[in-house]
Amino acid sequence: MTSQHTERKVQRLTDWCRTNNLSLNVDNTIEMVVDFKRTRRDLSPLHIDGSTVEIVKSTKFLGVHLAEDLAWSLNTSTITKKAQQRLYFLRRLRKAAYAGSRDAAGLPLPPPILTTFYRGTIKSILSSCITAWFGNLTASDCKSLQQVVRTAEKIISVSLPTITDIYTTRCIRKANSIA
C-alpha cells in the first residue's frame, strides 16, 4: 500500500468518526508496520488531525504482545515470567497445612486442590489466546512454556496436560463451536 493510499484510508476513518460523533484519541494511537519485503522502505508517519502517530516495533493488544516481525518470543517470555511468578504461590500452597487436620503439624493440601489452583492461576495464563500464537512458536519458546507445566507437575505430584495438548484441545473446541 502506498503512503497516499494509507493517508486516504485514515482520513476516511477520521471523517467517519466525526460523522458518527466519535473521536479518535491520537495520543493513544500507534502504528505498527508489518512488512516482509526484502527491501524495506521508510514510510512517513501517519498524521491524524495534525498530530503524528507514533510508529512502534511491538505492542500489547488484548493481553497479547504483537511484534512487527510477527514473532512470538516477546509474548512467550512475558507469559513464562508471569506463570513462573504464580508457581511460587503454588509451592507455598503445597507446603501449607489445612486446618481440618487433627495433628498439630497439619496435613498437606491434597493434589485436587493444588490442581484447581494450577488451572485457575497458571494454566489460564499459559492458554490465554493460545490458538492465535502457539502454532507459530519456535521450539525454544515452546520448551520454555512446557517447562512451566513440568515444574507445576512436580510441585503437585500429578500428571498435567502438555502445552501442546492444551493448544490442541482449544483448537478442537474452537472448531466445534464454529461448525
Task: Characterise the protein shown here.
With 179 residues, the protein is mostly helical. The chain is 53% helix and 11% strand. A hairpin with an 8-residue loop joins strand 7 and strand 8. Helix 2 runs antiparallel to helix 3 and helix 3 packs antiparallel against helix 5. The radius of gyration is 23 Å and the shape is elongated. The two termini are 35 Å apart.
In short:
This protein is mostly helical and 179 residues long.
Overview features:
179 residues, two-stranded antiparallel sheet, 11% strand
Strand order of the largest sheet: 1-4
Oligomeric assembly? single chain
Strand content: 5-15%
Give the helix tally.
6
Distance between the termini: 35 Å
Shape: elongated
Number of DSSP-assigned strands: 8
Mean pLDDT: 87
In N-to-C order, the SSE pattern is: HEEEEEEHEEHHHH
Which percent range fits the helix content? Answer: 40-55%
User: What is the structural class?
Assistant: mainly alpha
How are the SSEs ordered, and which strands pair?
Blueprint: H1 3-19, E1 30-31, E2 47-48, E3 51-52, E4 54-55, E5 58-61, E6 64-67, H2 73-95, E7 97-98, E8 107-108, H3 111-126, H4 130-133, H5 139-156, H6 163-178
Parallel strand pairs: 1-4
Antiparallel strand pairs: 2-3, 5-6, 7-8
Helix pairs in contact: 2-3, 2-5, 3-5
